[in-house]
Structures are given as C-alpha cells and as structure tokens.
Amino acid sequence: MQNHPVFFDNDPQGELSTLNLGPTHPATHGVFQNVLQMDGERIVSGVSTIGYIHRAFEKIAEHRPFYQITPLTDRLNYCSSPINNMGWHMTVEKLAGITMPKRVDYMRVIIMELARIADHIICNGVLGVDTGAFTGFLYMMEYREEIYEIYEEICGSRLTTNIGRIGGFERNFNTIAFNKIRKFLKEFPPVLKEFENLFNRNRIFIDRTKGVAPVTAETALSYSWSGPLLRAAGIDYDVRAMEPYSSYEDFDFEIPVGENGDVYSRFLVRNEEMKQSLRIIEQALTKIEKEPADIFHADVPEFYLPPKEEVYNNMEALIYHFKIVMGEVETPVTDVYHAVEGANGELGFYLVNDGGRSPYRLHFRRPSFINYQMYAPMSQGMLLSDAIINMSSLNVIAGELDA
C-alpha cells in the first residue's frame, strides 16, 4: 500500500479538505480507498490505494495442483466467474497441448457469453442507480437470476461456479439447461430494449454521464486499458477477434466502439455488447446441434478426472484420479500466456512451469487492476458526484482489483 501524501503543504490557509472515499464509504464499489484533496466539491488531487482485501491468490495458487486453482479464479471477478474458470482451464490446456472438441468449445462460448451479459447487467444497472434511477437495476436483476439458474442447472453453483474442468465440462448440458438458455434468448432482448429506452434518451441520465470523464484513445492505450473502456474510447480491440480462442473464429459478431470514451459511451458499448453476446449464443446453439451430443470433454485421461463410478470400480481410473488430484501428472517445463476477453477487458494468465505439481509462478492479468490505475488522475478537477459516476462506469470489481 502506498503512503498517503500530506496535502496541506501548499495550502497555508487550510481552505482545502481531505476526503477518504473508501474503503467503507457507501458510494465506493468495493473495499478500496481514494484519499482526495477537495476544494469544496471539486477534486484537486488524489491517491488511490488498495490492499484491504488482499488474498494472495497468485501465491496460494503456486502451492496448489493445477486442478485445485479453479476455485481461486472464480473469486476474481465474481460477477462473471465462469470466464475466469474457462480462461484458467485453457491456460493449462495450452501448457499441456490439449486440443478441445468443437462441441466443448461451443459449450464454453455459451457459458462465457452468458457471464458477460450478467456482468454488464450489474455494471449498467448500478450506473443507473448511481444516477438516481433504481428501476432499471431491479428490472434487469430478474434476468440475471435466469442466467444463474442456467449455471445452477449445469454445475449446481450460482455465483462462484467452479464450472467446467481442465479438458472440458464435468457433465453434459441436459435438456433442461438448453431449454433455459433458449428461454433466456427469447425473453431477454425485449427487456434489454426497454432498459435502453429508460436511459439512452433520458435527459437526466445524459446530463449526468455525457462528457463526464472522457478518455482519448491514446491515453487509454498508454494506461493499458482493454475491454469496454478501451472500445468506448474508439479502439476496436477484442481478444475474441484479435487472438481467437475456444473457436470464436467460427462466429460472426461485431465489436461495438464508442466515440469519446466518456461514461455515456461506456454505457452504450456495454449495452451493444450484450446484444452481440446474445447473437453469439444463438449461433453456438445452432453449431452444437451439428456435433455429437455425447461429447463434453476431451479424451485426456491424464488431466480429466474419470467418472466416480469408474473410480470406485476400476483400478486404472482410481490411479488416474489420484494422480490428477495430487498433481502427479508430468507437464512441460515452459511458460505460457493465455488471455480471454473478460467482461472488464483482457483477462490473462501467465504461467511459468517447472514440471512440478504446482505452478512455479502464476500471474493473473486482472483488467480491473489495470483500469483502476487511471481513476485518480481522471478525477482531478472533477466534481465529487461525477467521480462517483466515473467509478461506476469503470466497473471496478474488488476481487479482481485486489487479488
């Protein structure tokens, strides 16, 4: 944690005041702090600090077998945890040289795009709340609940899902899960349209967001921004399109791009991304129908846990189960980096492997941590009320920021 500067050296009259915006301030979206120097309601300068919930996930992961790291990843961005899970599984698969069946890729795409929608529902809904409009948030929550019910049908969990496995899924999608996905695809688009109608041309909302915290493309790139924030600034970078994974190259979708990188542009970009996610899921369902229905994992017995009934009755399956759980499977001595398009931007996993049972070194590229670096410089000269709106549009997820 950084040391806080003394603000009053150049303020002999004591006309400026210091405000702790966090870690327990009701307006902050998580346990983090901004020490602001205020001239009335205007921010003169500030320092951002983190570390209040630091959980040392990377160091913990370096003492766990690859298989046991998944529950750590879905506690990064817990608003879209399946994307974290899938990103980690793909990283290990890249390390081990595992090729996935197309049907597994398409199943993963469905889950990841549902997670993206769930995350954007939270971000744009909360942005409405912070501008004084609670209706949109409550209205959209019902459909985020439908996404959680899909997760629950597939894996039994809702928030921190631990969904999927290295090598595929723990079980196949059943008929109920597919029906719930199709039901969501039918019901959510008109709701999203009504949500847009509440805000897109609402004079109060526009006055509160348009022109607030604009960021140029050059500045966004210099701070290594990615995801909706970078695209709102006019850069059409999306990992799914630039470095396709999980067969995203098989899909037809557009990359929404904003104009001036302000809060309003970020809101519009996320709304459009939800529409594109729906479009991708529809294509994935069509593609799955053309693949063998019984395929839900790769044929990699040295990495994929055998079914329990086989473990209880077959010695070879028991041996594989033991070796996988205890991390006794040999892996290449090398380093790999794999990135996925998380809801907040490029979510990367840099894995240095020495062939042991656990990673030698593991680093998570957490988009919230990267994006948050710019918050204090952006807030300079801004009204406090606008700084809150700006924070909301950054979608700072504390677990991803402060892992």
Describe the structure.
The chain is mostly helical and 403 residues long. It has one domain (65-402): Cytochrome-c3 Hydrogenase, chain B (Orthogonal Bundle), CATH 1.10.645.10. Helices cover 48% and strands 11% of the residues. The chain has helices at residues 57-61, 70-73, 81-96, 102-130, 135-155, 175-199, 203-209, 217-222, 227-232, 239-242, 263-288, 308-313, 315-325, 367-372, 375-379, 384-394, 398-401; strands at residues 17-21, 33-39, 42-49, 334-342, 345-353, 361-365. It has a 3-stranded antiparallel β-sheet. A 3-stranded antiparallel β-sheet has the order 4-5-6. It starts with 16 loop residues before the first strand and ends with a helix.
Largest sheet geometry = 3 strands, antiparallel
Number of domains: 1
Beta strands, count: 6
**What is the CA-atom radius of gyration, in angstroms?**
22 Å
Label the overall shape: globular
In short:
The chain has 403 residues and is mainly alpha-helical. Helices cover 48% and strands 11% of the residues.
Topology:
Layout: E1 17-21, E2 33-39, E3 42-49, H1 57-61, H2 70-73, H3 81-96, H4 102-130, H5 135-155, H6 175-199, H7 203-209, H8 217-222, H9 227-232, H10 239-242, H11 263-288, H12 308-313, H13 315-325, E4 334-342, E5 345-353, E6 361-365, H14 367-372, H15 375-379, H16 384-394, H17 398-401
Antiparallel strand pairs: 1-2, 2-3, 4-5, 5-6
Helix pairs in contact: 3-4, 4-5, 4-11, 4-16, 5-6, 6-11
Throw out a few tags for this protein.
mainly alpha; three-stranded antiparallel beta sheet; disordered N terminus; globular; 403 residues; single chain
